[in-house]
Amino acid sequence: MFKHILVPVDGSSTALVAMDKAVQLARAFDGRITVIHVIDPYPFVGIGADFAFGQAEYLTAAKASATKALATAAETAAAAGVPCTQRTIEGQSVFEGILEAATGVDVDLIIMGSHGRAGLEKLLLGSETQRVLSHTTLPVLVVKN
C-alpha cells in the first residue's frame, strides 16, 4: 500500500516521532523512506547581495543542522532495516520544498510532525504541516508529539 514514504525532518522530537511511525509503516508494507530537510530562504534585510548580513553564517548553520537531522533519521531507518535516502532542499519555503520532493521522488505518503522548532533555526513548523495538507492531493499522516 505505502511503498515510498516521505518524511520531512528538522531535528525536533516531533520529527523523530514521525520518523519512528514512518519506519513502522515502511516495515509493515515492505517500503522505503526518503527523508528531507528543507532550508528555507535566508531572511536578510538589505538591498542586494552586498547587504545580506549573516547570510554565509546562516547557510553554514542551516546545512550543519540539516546534516545532523538527516543522519539521525537515516540511523533510525537503518536500525530497523528500512531503505532510506536523504535529500537537502534549499531556497524554497518549507512547504513548497516538501511538496516538490514528494512529487519529485514519487512518494505514496507524507508523514510529518505537527510542529517543530521556532526562531532563527526554524526549518519545519506546525503551520508548514497545515500548508502541506492544504496544497497536496497525497495522503498525509500527521504525528503529534
Our estimate of the beta-strand percent is 15-25%
Strand order of the largest sheet: 3-2-1-4-5
SSE series: EHEHEHEHE
The assigned CATH architecture is 3-Layer(aba) Sandwich
* SS summary, helix count: 4
pLDDT average, as an integer? 86
**Helix proportion range:** 40-55%
- Overall geometric form: globular
Remind me, CATH topology?
Rossmann fold
What's the main sheet like?
5 strands, parallel
CATH C-level:
Alpha Beta
Compute the number of structural domains. Answer: 1
In CATH, what is the homologous superfamily?
Answer: HUPs
Structural overview:
- The protein has 145 residues and is of the alpha/beta class.
- The chain has a single domain, classed as HUPs (Rossmann fold).
- Helices cover 43% and strands 20% of the residues.
- It has four helices and five strands.
- A five-stranded parallel sheet has the order 3-2-1-4-5, with helices on both faces.
- Strand 2, helix 2 and strand 3 (84-90) form a beta-alpha-beta unit.
- Helix 1 runs parallel beside helix 2 (55-79) and helix 3 (94-104) crosses helix 4.
- The longest helix is centred in the middle third of the chain and has 25 residues, at 55-79.
Features of the shown structure:
alpha/beta, five-stranded parallel β-sheet, 145 residues, 5 strands, Rossmann fold, 4 helices, globular
Topology of this protein?
Elements: E1 4-8, H1 13-28, E2 32-39, H2 55-79, E3 84-90, H3 94-104, E4 109-113, H4 126-135, E5 140-143
Parallel strand pairs: 1-2, 1-4, 2-3, 4-5
Helix pairs in contact: 1-2, 3-4
